[in-house]
Automatic annotation (TrEMBL):
InterPro entries hit by this protein: Pirin, Pirin_C_dom, Pirin_N_dom, RmlC-like_jellyroll, RmlC_Cupin_sf
Descriptive protein name: Pirin
Superkingdom assignment: Bacteria
Cofactor: Fe cation
tRNA-binding found in the keyword field: no
A Pfam family: Pirin
Limits of the Pirin N-terminal domain: 24-120
Family statement: Belongs to the pirin family.
Start and end residues of each Pirin C-terminal domain: 177-277
Keywords assigned by UniProt, alphabetized: Iron, Metal-binding
Binding of Fe cation, residues: H57, H59, H101, E103
CDD domains per UniProt: cupin_pirin_C (cd02247)
GO molecular function, one term: metal ion binding
C-alpha cells in the first residue's frame, strides 16, 4: 500500500512508421510508474485516417486488450483466430508462453481509426500457460448514479467494477471500465481501497474532486490515484468519456522489452532468438506467408526489472 496520489501522467508520442503508418500516444509504462495494478502498457492509436498494417509479431508473458473507439480492426493469430473487432467489443489475447498475431484496418485504403490498446502482465503462476484468444461482443453495462445531472453509463471491459464482472478471462484482481458522462453530470466512481487506480480522459472535459482539491485532467492524460480510496468524485460541464484502470498492486518485478514481458534478461533474449529462428513456440499466422516483423537487436546492456518510484 502506497496511499492516495494525484499525479498526472502525460502521454509521449511514439512513431511506428511503416508498421502502422501512424504515431501512437503512450502513457504506460512510465519511467516512474511501470504498472497500475497489472496494467503494464497503454497506447492510443488515433484518432487518424490511416491504412493500418501491423504484420505478424510475437508476445510472451502478457495479455493484449484492444478496445476500439472508431473503426474496425481485423485480428489474426497463430491459434487460427480471424475476427473483425468493432466499437463496444473486446479482443483479449493471452500470450502465455508464446503467440503471434497481426492487426489490420479493414479495407484497402485509409479509414478513420481510433482505439485503446493495453497490455496486462501475467503473474508468475500463469505466465507460462498455453496461449488463448477470446472476443466479447456483449459486455455488461451499468448505471452510476449522479449527484447532479444524468446518471453515467459504464461498460465493464475487464475484471470487476461496482459489483459487476466482465466475462473476459483475467489472472489477477483487476478493473478496466469505460465511463461515459453526460454534460452537467457529477458522479461518484466506486473504487476498491486495496487496489490502485488511474483515470484517463479519452474525450471531453472532466474534473476530479479530492476533498478540497479539484484536478482538471487534460485530454489524453492519465490521473494516477494511488490506492487507499473507496471512491472519487468526477464532474463535467461538457460531457466526458473516461477509462478507469486499476487493480491489486503488482509486486513482481518485470522485464519488458519489445513485445515481451518476462522476469530476466536471459528469458527475453531466448524469446527473441526463438522468434528470429521461426520456432514452433510462436507458430504461424495464416494468410501472411513469410511476412513478419523482425525483432530489433537486444540493447548492449543487461535488461533489468522495472519498479515504481512514486
Amino acid at each position: 500500500m502506497h496511499g492516495p496520489r494525484s499525479i498526472l501522467l502525460e502521454p509521449r508520442e511514439v512513431p511506428l512508421g511503416g508498421v502502422r503508418a501512424m504515431n501512437v500516444q503512450r502513457i504506460l509504462p512510465n519511467r516512474e510508474l511501470p504498472t497500475i495494478g497489472a496494467w503494464c502498457f497503454f497506447d492510443r492509436f488515433g484518432p487518424d485516417e490511416v491504412r493500418m498494417r501491423v504484420e505478424p509479431h510475437p508476445h510472451i508473458g502478457l495479455q493484449t486488450v484492444t478496445w476500439p473507439l472508431v473503426g474496425e480492426v481485423r485480428h489474426r493469430d497463430t491459434l487460427d483466430s480471424d475476427v473483425v473487432l468493432r466499437r463496444g467489443q473486446l479482443n483479449l489475447m493471452t500470450a502465455g508462453n508464446g503467440i503471434a498475431h497481426s492487426e489490420y484496418s479493414v479495407g484497402d485504403g485509409p479509414v478513420p481509426l481510433d482505439a485503446l490498446q493495453f497490455w496486462v502482465v501475467l503473474p508468475e503462476a500463469s505466465r507460462h500457460r498455453a496461449p488463448g484468444f477470446e472476443q466479447h461482443t456483449d459486455l455488461p453495462r451499468i448505471a452510476l448514479p449522479s449527484a447532479e445531472g444524468p446518471d453515467a453509463a459504464a461498460t465493464v471491459v475487464l475484471g470487476d467494477f461496482a459489483g459487476v464482472r466482465s466475462p473476459a478471462t483475467v489472472f489477477t484482481p483487476i478493473v478496466g471500465a469505460e465511463i461515459e458522462l453526460a454534460a452537467g453530470s457529477r458522479i461518484r466512481v466506486p473504487l476498491d481501497p486495496a487496489w490502485e487506480h488511474g483515470i484517463v480522459l479519452v474525450e471531453g472535459e472532466v474534473r476530479v474532486i479530492d476533498g478540497d482539491i479539484e484536478t482538471v485532467i487534460p485530454h489524453g492524460e492519465l490521473l494516477f490515484l494511488g490506492d487507499s480510496r473507496d471512491s472519487i468524485d468526477v464532474l463535467t460541464s461538457e460531457g466526458a468519456q473516461l477509462f478507469l484502470l486499476g487493480g491489486e498492486p503488482f509486486d513482481e518485478g518485470i522485464v519488458m522489452w519489445w513485445n515481451f514481458a518476462g522476469r530476466t534478461h536471459e528469458e527475453i533474449v531466448q524469446a527473441r532468438e526463438d522468434w528470429e529462428a521461426d520456432a514452433a513456440r510462436f507458430g504461424t499466422v495464416p494468410g501472411h506467408g513469410d511476412v513478419r516483423i523482425p525483432a530489433p537487436p537486444i540493447p548492449p546492456v543487461r535488461l533489468k526489472a522495472r519498479y515504481r518510484s512514486i
